[in-house]
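Bench notes, bay 3.
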Amino acid sequence: MALDQSFVGRTYPPTAPYEVGREKIREFAEAIGDANPAYTDAEAAKALGHPDVIAPPTFVFAITFKAANEVVADPGLGLDYSRVVHGDQKFAYTRPVRVGDRLTVTSTIEAVKSLAGNDILDVRGEVRDENGEHVVTAWTKLVARAAQEA
């Protein structure tokens, strides 16, 4: 069953604030194998002009993808998550994510398409800090593979 086209433009409420911790940044940088000292050493980050350590650019995926789950779980949309694969990811930053940021994500469905029996869903996540200032926009493309014929 195709996804409901009327959902294009639908915006979901902001998530609860996520507080960015120093240890979470360190663990993430270690997990992706990025030894950039700006992610673990406050003095190295300050030497680059940051007030404290910053997060790797893909760090926000964890919170934007979690926010997109509200979209995915919306029963009216008609998405069969058992057939979903992650198709693409893009980020556009205003500033880096920093230790101590309290970030919220507001998800909006930007596009719903069908191609060769596959459903394609584009979700934009606007990430803002505790002052409402824009930090980053993340675009997530999800592809629900066509159902197999029995």
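Next record in the batch:
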Amino acid sequence: MKKEMLAMILAGGQGSRLGVFTKRIAKPAVSFGGKYRIIDFVLSNCSNSGIDTVGVLTQYRPLILNSHIGMGSHWDLDRINGGVYILQPYMNEKEGNWYEGTAHAIHQNMNFIDSYNPKYVLILSGDHIYKMDYSKMLEYHKEKNAKATIAVIEVPWDEASRFGIMNTNSDGSIYEFEEKPSEPKSNLASMGVYIFEWQMIRNYFIKSKNENLNYDDFGKDLIPKMLEDNVGMYAYPFKGYWRDVGTIQSLWDANMDLIRCRETLDLQDPKWKIYTNTMAMPPQYIGKYGKINKSLVADGCVILGEVENSVLSHGVIVEEDSSIKDSVIMPNVKIGKNVIIEKAMIGEGAIIKDNVIIRNYKDEINVVSEYEVVKPELVLEGGM
């Protein structure tokens, strides 16, 4: 059946800047916020926006991500006509390549998109934290009679050189795109959220194949080419919380924002729920001397020590006389007795032995790898 708009989520990134947290899983599958994975936010945005047909393009270490998404029932995406589809690179009789860029990934899946014959295709990144109603962006796209619409957000001027910047006219039309400019002309950063008229972008893909052109990436190749061709392209201004969690620092910051920025990233909002594949875990247990202050603590945790300003994922154990502060603890971490952890990210399944101190006076984030065993003799006070 024909769909007005379907979504394609780019979720194949390795996320090398996240280091130890993406050695065995794709970045969109990294744990976040105690009970979620990063991709839950964009999947929930699709569901809450009324988009019922979603393709998830995976590539790097997809097993855990595929298992997490399953049939899509947790996001109400287990539909007979539509639903969620896992789309991986494949080989046909003429070619068989890995996805070589954001646009190439969409190009490889033209047959899937054509099977629904949509008027519009929504392109999304699977590794951003935000809440957005895509139906409002589509309304804006229609009002402007646009061929392409790119969501933008104002970033601080001193950070604008880190982003792809859209320079616009007073009516919102885009006249120039600059990739990480040294001297930006505006602070409107691309969010990696695009709406294209499908037949228009499809023609570009066919042309690139027939004429052997390089249209592998939206930001580097296709968007500049469309601007050159005077395609009607508009910037959709987004007001709200948005963060690209591509580094250790940004991932830690986004977790902390769940505590300190509840008014802009409210997980308790009943009108815009963030759904996930929930683990079947027992309730939290807080011991006689256990204390929790200004923190998110998931089910299955046992707290016998003190937790302050931290995010604890499911199955974490904090033993007696231990103190956790300003930290993100991923699932099933075991923290022994008389342990001090400050401003750290502890990978899934790690074991922190008794009397360990993880603390850094240089205000850097301490990192413990997944399933690492940390003993007192391996750690010096002052950081790892």
